[in-house]
Amino acid sequence: MKLAAIETRIVEMPLVTPFRTSFGTETMRQVLVVRAETDEAEGWGECGASEAPLYSSEYTEGAAAVIREFFVPALRDAQRDLGDDFDAHRVAPALAAFKEHRLAKSAIETAILDAQLRAQGISFASALGAVRESVPCGVSLGITDTIDQLLDTVAASLDAGYVRIKLKIEPGWDLDPVRAVRERFGDIDLQVDANAAYRRSDARLLAKLDAFDLTLLEQPLPADDLLGHAALAREITTPICLDESITSARAAATAIELGAVHIVNIKPGRVGGYLEARRIHDLCAAHDVPVWCGGMLETGIGRAANVALAALPGFLLPGDTSASERYFATDLTEPFRLEEGRIAVPTGPGLGVTPIPEVLDRFTVRQDRLPC
Ligand code: OSB
Ligand code: MG
């Protein structure tokens, strides 16, 4: 396969409701969409970064810049060395010299993998090793102004069919909302995500969550505090799940060895792409560590690939793979719909979905074509 060009677009999609986490509030999903043009097919990828570097150090404009200034020239060089042999597995090695920027690397690798799989007539699901035709879905609910608002949102999510509820927490919004949801809705599958908002000295407070029988506590401490998570794991009974800390298969191996993690949230963007995500899945399976698929408020492009990944055998818990309408009134692709709490895994070649040109154009604020 020969890569002809990388096209980047900055797209701005209004969210149906603001999404508030311990690190900030998003009312609009600013997303970098990547299109890979090859001699055989085109492919699509999306970058998980948002407008500001609040979840991680990456942000949309930075991702666009690193792709333009460094990644595309490196892909051009790699391709020149390889002749017509270029494919998605060459992307990570070609970009490995550039530190971090995993969300941007993932968008590039995904677009090229999509092009390759479309040309080969293979779906993401079968390329990755999926064993399910549909996946059970959870929903991640942001911090609200009042507990009553939160209870209404949980009620609506359960009515819609979501099989697992995740509440965002932060200091000052933890025990009370969790208690209220548990009391009102009883024995539902409930978990919480702190996005690194607590410190080791909060262990006693976090131990009070044990009373609510949560499925897991996601990323309570800073990303680089693996020892803190290991210490916390010895002081509380709620299983610890890591998100921000797991940046690679190596980081996952370290966290498992330290006893810092019981369950892993796999976000392909955060680890640099679906190929590394697959390796983390395999590593966790080998250690009997369950995984689930996280999300970054993806449009249909990223959602298609996430749903395919979530169909692998080690994905033993419902993911943050919610339906398109939970995020957007109009998605970039055909919307993903929830049916009896599940989303069907796309079966067509590559992602199995394609952005709708008029919709993509309507939400695009800037576009750049970079020849390779
Ligand atoms: O921590 O899992 C997270 C969204 C953006 C950034 C980080 C996170 C999230 C979510 C929402 O929790 C997941 C989703 O519904 O896509
Ligand atoms: Mg998280």
From TrEMBL:
Keywords from the UniProt entry: Lyase, Magnesium, Metal-binding
Cofactor(s) listed: a divalent metal cation
InterPro entries to which the protein is assigned, alphabetical: Enolase-like_C_sf, Enolase-like_N, Enolase_C-like, Mandelate_racemase_C, Mandelate_racemase_N_dom, OSBS/NAAAR
Residue ranges annotated for the Mandelate racemase/muconate lactonizing enzyme C-terminal domain, each copy included: 147-239
TM segment ranges: none
Enzyme Commission number(s) of this protein: 4.2.1.113
CDD domains: NAAAR
Entry-linked Pfam families: MR_MLE_C, MR_MLE_N
Domain of life: Bacteria
NCBIfam families assigned to the protein according to its UniProt record, in alphabetical order: menC_lowGC_arch (TIGR01928)
Name the UniProt record assigns to this protein: o-succinylbenzoate synthase
Organism: Leucobacter iarius
